[in-house]
Design brief:
The chain has 724 residues and is of the alpha+beta class. It is elongated, with a radius of gyration of 35 Å. α2 packs across α3, α8 packs parallel to α14 and α9 packs across α14. It contains 16 helices and 22 strands. The strands form six sheets. Strands 5, 8, 9, 12 and 13 form a five-stranded mixed sheet that branches. Strands 14, 17, 18, 21 and 22 form a five-stranded mixed sheet that branches.
């Protein structure tokens, strides 16, 4: 036994002594580390697209694009982490070093979200947004390198802690390990959106993204500390060389060798990889052939992840335009993602213990590749469901003017009704203290207004294209134009303003909003307010002139509250409310079917795919197929960007249908490919090959021995012949 082997055995012996209930105590540190790391990753990722949209002020397309580039990088870097661990540093050091990089990245992300690190406007918007963008991009690069780099190492490092005879304990460990991943994901997607919803800041109050990113950063630091604490108990295997590099070198040599002999008359070989026979072991070539058969089946798979990972981008943005009031709780848009881990923990045991056994009893051959096909179909149906939900949302969205149009609404603040004429439209009546229900769209930048009063002739007004405006008609036919909102309030907030129709100024205030003094025939600024019941205090210039006005707010509405000339101070009587933008009326519960379908697809597709890959991979190339599997996720996220850029669809529901159609087409292609695939037993093939190679080697040895005997006999007889 070598000195290195003795050290490894000594270390295993020492580790074996520190056990609890038959399990190595070291796995406790690994499990806690994984829970904290997954909390950190999924917690940050849950609020990321909203951070892009509402803090960095990017539009939906840019926010979605950068989100998917980040996710893709997280699934590209595992290949780098596996190479570093297996070739140079070993799993333990790789986890330590890349976790430090990971933690630094999370801290940088938290710092990038502090709006007070630069000068801000009155509304709290940073003036130097480029600094925040640069910091956040640096943070995301470090996080992608860290989380991806340790991904292939942690679970394998946990498996290294067990002795060969502890197969049952090892299986339990991986089950607990997978449970910790989903538990961390579930808890973080509940907590971080709540933290994001808080108000924080030094000079101005804004949504608390620093806290939403800061808690995951703290959990990553905890993960690193816990992992280091168990250092003395770990079994730390030395790097043994990276099989992925050997595979790449072998394939490269085969291609190069075949190209080198392309113009010469050489005997044809059964497989193009056989051109590597001159340099590489035949068993390695046989194993690579098995791997390439599976990798070929992987080619259509990225399309599944193209749809699946949009639940963290497009679906979260969709939820921002919906009503999250479930009565007993208010869900934030990014909290809808918690349905995924909840459903996973529910559906995995149901499918394993009930669904699959029932299908088997029915005599149906529900093979792994058929399961994966069904999973892809489920994902496509999830996007059909998302498209139907989007159509319902679009019905409630305001029809806003284009850049060449303007929209005008008339508000009558007189005590008598009016007949209003704004050519080329027909005259329309407006009752006292009322506004016409719909905005009128004009293609010109001037309008003329006529009333059924003694007003001499039509009154012209200049209007602004691309804007919504309200024409307020007060006592004495005094008229003024005020600008209205041209977009739904974001993040589920509500916009509310007051218009004073009294002859005297009034003061209006509420919790978190001070409108100040509002002069007669003046519209105040809009104040953004969250969902809930709000109480407004209206005060007049005289003692005793004060009352409270209560308004229940939903999500995403815009209102003008009119204090008319008939207003009474007793209970704020005769106040008029005008709804400018309808609040979100489509409930978030309508997203449940699409989350159920996508999660059912994940359970049938992803879990089965991992099992299939493991069963079809040679014993020493499980990591190669694992890297190939993760690569399909990365490619899938890049496809989101390509399809979205090429399609450039104005309607979101149409984009959802496009993705669903593409996946159905890919699903058909995959089912055809799967039909021609022959399942193999890699262990049996390897054993059979080794047996043949052993017999062949034995035969060669006998031939060599016979050859040597023949040579020796000739040498012995030569002198006798000479003597004769």
């Amino acid at each position: 036994m070598t000195e290195k082997g003795e050290k490894d055995n000594d270390q295993k012996a020492k580790t074996k002594k520190v056990e609890c209930c038959g399990y190595p105590l070291s796995i406790f540190f690994i499990v806690v580390n994984e829970f904290c790391e997954r909390f950190s990753y999924y917690g940050m990722r849950a609020v990321l697209v909203l951070y892009f949209k509402y803090f960095l002020l990017w539009d939906d397309d840019l926010a979605t694009s950068i989100y998917h580039v980040f996710v893709a990088c997280c699934y590209l870097t595992p290949i780098l982490g596996a190479i570093v661990a297996d070739s140079w540093l070993g799993k333990f050091k790789t986890i330590i070093y890349l976790s430090i990089v990971y933690a630094i990245g999370q801290v940088v992300m938290a710092v990038s979200a502090i709006h007070d690190i630069t000068d801000t406007d009155k509304d709290g918007t940073p003036n130097n947004m480029s600094l925040h963008v640069v910091l956040s991009m640096i943070g995301l690069v470090l996080i992608a390198l860290g989380t991806g780099g340790i991904k292939p190492c942690v679970s394998a490092f946990g498996g290294d802690q067990f002795e060969d005879h502890q197969t049952r304990q090892r299986g339990t460990f991986f089950s607990v390990f997978y449970l910790c991943i989903n538990a961390g994901s579930l808890l973080s997607t509940i907590v971080t959106p709540i933290l994001r919803g808080q108000e924080c800041g030094i000079h101005s109050q804004q949504k608390c993204y620093p806290l939403a990113f800061g808690v995951p950063a703290a959990l990553m630091v905890v993960a690193l500390v816990v992992f280091i604490m168990g250092s003395g108990m770990y079994v730390k295997t030395a790097p043994k060389g990276n099989i992925m590099l050997d595979v790449c070198k072998c394939i490269g040599f085969a291609i190069k060798n075949r190209y080198r002999h392309r113009s010469k008359q050489y005997q044809k070989r059964e497989h193009w990889l056989d051109w590597a026979n001159e340099k590489y072991d035949k068993l390695l070539i046989v194993q690579i052939k098995m791997v390439l058969k599976v990798l070929f089946l992987y080619l259509p798979l990225p399309m599944f992840w193209t749809l699946f990972d949009q639940k963290g981008s497009r679906w979260t943005l969709q939820a921002t335009t919906m009503n999250g009031d479930f009565g007993f709780l208010i869900l934030q848009p990014d909290q809808m993602q918690t349905l995924n881990p909840i459903l996973i923990l529910t559906l995995v045991p149901i499918t394993d213990r009930i669904v699959y056994p029932l299908i088997e009893k029915c005599g149906l051959n529900f093979s792994p590749l058929r399961r994966m096909t069904v999973g892809m179909f489920f994902a496509a149906m999830a996007f059909v469901s998302a498209s139907m939900v989007q159509l319902e949302i679009d019905k409630t969205l305001p029809v806003l003017p284009s850049s060449s149009q303007t929209q005008v609404r008339v508000l009558n603040m007189q005590s008598n009704g009016l007949m209003v004429t704004i050519p080329p439209n027909e005259p329309f009546p407006i009752g006292p203290n009322q506004a016409n229900e719909q905005y009128i769209t004009f293609d010109s930048d001037t309008i003329s207004v006529s009333l059924n009063t003694t007003t001499p002739g039509p009154v012209p007004y200049n209007v602004t294209k691309g804007m919504r405006q309200t024409l307020v008609i007060g006592p004495g036919n005094n008229m003024m134009l005020v600008y209205d909102l041209t977009a739904k309030p974001e993040q589920g907030n509500n916009a509310l303003r007051f218009i004073n129709g009294l002859n005297t100024a009034v003061n209006v205030s509420a919790s978190g909003a001070d409108y100040g003094a509002i002069s007669t025939m003046i519209a105040s600024n809009y104040f953004l307010m969250a969902h809930g019941t709000r109480v407004f205090t209206i005060s007049g210039p005289n003692i005793g002139q004060q009352c409270e006005f209560t308004k229940k707010l939903g999500f995403g509405g815009a209102y003008s509250v009119i204090i008319p000339s008939t207003f009474t101070w007793e209970n704020c009587g005769n106040i008029v409310e005008v709804e400018e933008i309808q609040p979100n009326s489509v409930h978030m519960a309508l997203q449940i079917p699409q989350y159920f379908l996508i999660t059912a697809g994940e359970v049938v597709f992803s879990v089965t795919g991992l099992e299939f890959s493991y069963s079809q991979a040679p014993s020493n190339m499980k990591a190669v197929l694992q890297a190939g599997w993760l690569l399909t996720t990365a490619v899938g996220n890049f496809i989101v960007l390509i399809v979205a850029q090429l399609a450039k669809l104005d309607k979101q529901w149409a984009e959802y249908l496009l993705f669903a159609s593409l996946l159905v087409a890919v699903c058909v292609i995959f089912s055809i490919m799967a039909n021609f695939y022959t399942y193999i037993d890699p262990v049996a093939i390897e054993a059979e090959f080794k047996e043949k190679e052993g017999l062949s080697s034995e035969k060669n040895e006998k031939l060599e021995m016979n050859g040597k005997d023949s040579v020796q006999h000739d040498d012995e007889e030569e002198p006798i012949q000479t003597k004769m």
